[in-house]
Amino acid sequence: MIDASTFLRRALLADAVFSGVAALGFIFGAGAFATLFNLPEVLLRETGLFLVAYTALVGWLASRAVVPKAIVLLVVIGNAAWTVGSIALLFSGAVSPNLAGELMVATQAVATGVFAELQYVGLRRSGSVVAA
After folding, report:
1. CB 1: neighbour CB atoms within 10 A?
2. What is the residue range of 12's domain?
3. Beta carbons of 119 and 75 less than 8 angstroms apart
4. Residues 6 or more apart from 90 whose CB is under 8 A from it?
5. Does the first or last residue of the chain, that is N or C, have fewer Cβ atoms within 10 Å of its Cβ?
6. What is the pTM of this model?
7. pLDDT tens across 67-122, in order?
8. What's the number of CA atoms in the CB half-sphere (13 Å) around residue 24?
9. Membrane: present as a keyword of the record (predicted)?
10. pLDDT at position 47, please?
């Protein structure tokens, strides 16, 4: 457990807010977004469902003054992996998004990478280990 810096808590909160909005959009608008982006509806809906759990975890971390360092590091690594995975998806041939879909996937990949970087910086700015 570590003392979470204000910077880290704000980076986690911003991630939770944006992930929560994306979750709701992908769950309830999967059909419309599938048509708009030429992406599989099931991919969008399942991404939204995953993001519900992710939002809950990141929101919980953001609300704590003391956080488990390992879990925050897992969030940072997960965000970095999501970024790489999103770009890999575009080049994999597994999906055939239109231009709007490519831009959406690329934009969310960049945003997720930015969250990973901000959270890593926040983690480094955080205080010392707290005895449990």
Report:
1. 14
2. 2-125
3. yes
4. 97, 102, 105, 106
5. C
6. 0.92
7. 999 999 999 999 999 999 999 999 999 999 999 999 999 999 999 999 999 999 99
8. 6
9. yes
10. 97
How many other CB atoms sit within 10 Å of the CB of residue 118?
A: 19
Please give the Cα distance from 52 to 6 (Å, whole number).
24
- Asked if residue 99 belongs to a domain, the reply is yes
Query: Which are the contacts of 74, defined by CB distance < 8 A and separation ≥ 6?
Result: none
Tokens of 56: 């809950």
> What is the token pair recorded at 115?
């969250």
- Supply the DSSP symbol for 46: H
Cα(25)–Cα(44) distance, integer angstroms: 9
Q: How many folded domains does the chain comprise?
A: 1
DSSP letter, residue 67: E
Residue 132 lies in a domain: no
9 found inside a domain: yes
